[in-house]
Q: What sequence folds into this?
């Protein structure tokens, strides 16, 4: 006979962990108790020592689906002679990090109930249990308890209360549980926000969609705009009303079979579609298929998501399982509409609204992910993933708040060896998004139960997050650390891969503020969390018109042609003489022309030279289209480039420059002699692979380093990532890529936390 005190940390609260422990203890004939305490679960169990051993093993191996054990430890205790095993009430104690579960897709048990005509929750669009349902999006404070969720206004009926209090029930302490007698209800509103008198809001909504209307539907983290994805007219109208020119929409399909009918689905992709996170997965289209081209024009991929709430399951059935466009309810790049502002924000876009009275507290967009070589490569980490933490390879000596970047913003709270990454906060240029950012920082601090003592931001002086960090550090007298953008990208990839050694960091992205004030983005860094050296970069060219050059790739083409002395008349056929002249003048005077080494801008220039695209309607569009074209062509040759040593910086240090002028001249020759855009795109990708391999080889000779991390938004490109990965492995490197957080600026905050933790470690 023995008694053990067992502590379990991780996501163990609000996920049915205590009833699970209770059942396990009963099976092993153990006595004692289990309780939630200060962000962890504490168990005291007494019984046969062999049974206790098995109990411990099963505790870790068989935990409930939403539980996520980070640490499990035990120590012996004096025997107490308990007669039974019981679940004790929680202690009110707010110290210690509490791990809140992300929102989770409807589980199989709940789905069966939803569709079972004999069940009391048959057809109820808000059913959930301890294994599924809303979490982050309804939380208003800590500890996680119904009174601190947006379900607080719905007192449980007797039947729900009985389940809630029964340790043997799968709704035991399921905080958001409800039924049609006591829970939220659907309501249908017309375009002006007037309630409709329909007896069945869902059926009426579905009918309107089938008739080609555009609907707004309130989901877990905000409103979605939806329409029949097969109808050219409806999708075109949505695109027009939303002012979203060409950016792809996602579609929701009823099940995995429907997804496989539209797109190729690998086993890793299938797993993601069916996961509790239920992200939008970017899949390769099968052609022909029923979804109109308007949904994702000029894109070989389609974002597909399966129903993840009971309401979505019911909607899918109500529209006879046709694919529905499901896109964030907003205009263009504004944040997703979620609460009282919805009528105003979506006025003129939606023909009708399917809404309900369960408030959304935390606005949370759908997550977007893709699979590269059967490994997940997140594009946007949000609903279903946040606020699950990432384990750091180093400890934060004090709590740290990292505020991330400006676009695709996320923040992170570092505490112990965990970094709690926020959901996607969007583009903080929008004041509304920035307000949500400020508020949600406060909410996460409460949820994690820490007050950060250090704050980290980007070196960019004009990011909203930088100003937020400066203001906060002044107000709270907190130490402020400014981290270089690409250093954070590198550290982000290191951190999620558990690296602490010095590495070569290949960080390719669109824009990041450089230590010399230039726009960096094609960088080879050598370093670790504490320090880095910029060892190589793409050759600087001017960015005529600054930000405008990002929206108009032809400007980058002009800049590259001028730099390479490759005046060819190529652009004269497509651009106005007047525009060309203006840009050339701007370039030669170096007015409004920051220097850039950005790989993203190089993609833009190539896209324009190859005749693919002179203007983009969303960020990264030129690169997405180049990748799409290149995929369908077998590799042949690559373009020439040169590496040259230069001395740069302060203090002056030798730097390897990737001279792209030969590349530009060769692309221009190809374009002039009628080589197809697809072939040019393919050759360009091969060239980038070669550039990265040659530079890494060079840096290896110089430093002896053998680990390479790949970071920055350019590595959302599957073709490039896959080929760079394979080439570097062939060359004998250990290569690390992102799997947990996005390689783009959504992952910056993780890197910032790791750097701050290391720098302050003494
Ligand atoms: Zn469930
Ligand atoms: Zn009820
Ligand atoms: Fe970046």
A:
């Amino acid at each position: 006979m023995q008694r053990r005190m067992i502590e379990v940390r991780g996501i163990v609260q609000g996920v049915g962990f205590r009833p699970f422990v209770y059942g396990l203890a009963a099976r092993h004939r153990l006595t004692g108790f289990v309780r939630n305490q200060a962000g962890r679960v504490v168990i005291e169990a007494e019984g046969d020592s062999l049974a206790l051993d098995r109990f411990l093993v099963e505790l870790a191996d068989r935990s409930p689906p939403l539980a996520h054990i980070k640490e499990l430890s035990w120590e012996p205790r004096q025997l107490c002679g308990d007669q039974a095993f019981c679940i004790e009430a929680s202690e009110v104690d707010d110290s210690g990090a509490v791990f809140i579960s992300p929102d989770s897709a409807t589980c199989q048990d709940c789905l069966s109930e939803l569709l079972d005509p004999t069940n009391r929750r048959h057809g109820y669009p808000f059913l959930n249990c301890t294994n599924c349902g809303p979490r982050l999006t309804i939380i208003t404070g800590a500890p996680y308890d119904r009174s601190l969720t947006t379900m607080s206004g719905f007192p449980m009926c007797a039947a729900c209360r009985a389940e809630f209090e029964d340790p043997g029930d799968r709704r035991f302490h399921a905080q958001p549980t409800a039924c049609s007698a006591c829970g939220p209800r659907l309501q249908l509103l017309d375009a002006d926000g007037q309630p409709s008198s329909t007896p069945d809001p869902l059926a009426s909504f579905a009918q309107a969609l089938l008739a080609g209307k555009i609907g707004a539907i309130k989901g877990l983290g905000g409103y979605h705009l939806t329409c029949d994805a097969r109808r050219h007219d409806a999708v075109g109208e949505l695109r027009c009303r939303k002012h979203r020119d060409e950016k792809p929409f996602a579609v929701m399909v009823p099940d995995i079979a429907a997804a496989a009918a539209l797109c190729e689905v690998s086993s890793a992709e299938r797993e993601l579609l069916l996961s509790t996170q239920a992200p939008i997965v970017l899949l390769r289209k099968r052609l022909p298929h029923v979804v109109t081209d308007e949904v994702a024009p000029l894109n070989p991929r389609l974002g597909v998501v399966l129903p993840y709430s009971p309401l979505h399951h019911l909607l899918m059935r109500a529209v006879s399982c046709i694919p529905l466009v499901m896109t964030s309810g907003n205009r263009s790049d504004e944040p997703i509409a979620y609460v009282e502002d919805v009528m105003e924000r979506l006025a003129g876009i939606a023909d009708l609204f399917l809404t309900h009275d369960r408030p959304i507290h935390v606005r949370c967009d759908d997550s977007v992910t893709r699979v590269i070589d059967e490994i997940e490569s997140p594009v946007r980490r949000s609903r279903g993933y946040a606020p699950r933490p990432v384990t750091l390879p180093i400890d934060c000596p004090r709590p740290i708040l990292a505020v991330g970047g400006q676009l695709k913003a996320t923040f992170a709270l570092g505490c112990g060896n965990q970094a709690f990454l926020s959901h996607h906060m969007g583009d903080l240029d929008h004041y509304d998004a920035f307000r949500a950012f400020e508020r949600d920082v406060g909410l996460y601090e409460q949820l994690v139960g820490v007050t950060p003592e250090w704050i980290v931001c980007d070196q960019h002086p004009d990011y909203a997050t930088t100003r937020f960090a400066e203001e906060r550090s002044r107000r709270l007298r907190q130490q402020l650390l400014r981290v270089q953008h690409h250093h954070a990208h590198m550290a982000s990839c290191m951190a999620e891969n558990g690296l602490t050694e010095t590495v070569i960091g290949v960080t390719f992205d669109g824009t990041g503020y450089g230590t010399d004030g230039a726009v960096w983005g094609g960088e080879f860094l050598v370093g670790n969390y504490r320090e880095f050296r910029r060892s190589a970069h793409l050759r600087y060219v001017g960015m005529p018109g600054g930000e405008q050059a990002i929206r108009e790739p032809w400007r980058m083409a002009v800049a590259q042609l001028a730099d390479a002395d490759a005046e060819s008349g190529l652009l004269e056929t497509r651009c106005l003489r007047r525009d060309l002249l203006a840009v050339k003048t701007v370039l030669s005077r170096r007015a409004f022309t920051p220097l850039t080494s950005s790989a993203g801008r190089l993609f833009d220039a190539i896209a324009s030279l190859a005749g693919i695209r002179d203007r983009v309607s969303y960020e990264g569009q030129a690169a997405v289209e180049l990748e799409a074209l290149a995929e369908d062509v077998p590799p042949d040759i690559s373009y020439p480039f040169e590496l040259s040593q230069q001395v740069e910086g302060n203090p002056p240090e030798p730097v390897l420059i990737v001279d792209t002028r030969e590349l530009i001249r060769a692309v221009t020759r190809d374009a002039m002699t009628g080589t197809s855009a697809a072939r040019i795109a393919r050759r360009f990708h091969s060239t980038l692979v070669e550039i990265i391999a040659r530079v890494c080889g060079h840096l290896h000779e110089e430093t002896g380093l053998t680990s390479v991390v790949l970071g920055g938004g350019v590595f959302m490109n599957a073709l490039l990532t896959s080929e760079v990965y394979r080439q570097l492995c062939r060359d004998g490197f250990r290569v690390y890529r992102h799997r947990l957080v996005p390689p783009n600026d959504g992952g910056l905050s993780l890197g910032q936390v790791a750097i701050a933790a290391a720098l302050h470690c003494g």
Summary: The first strand starts at residue 2 and ends at 11.
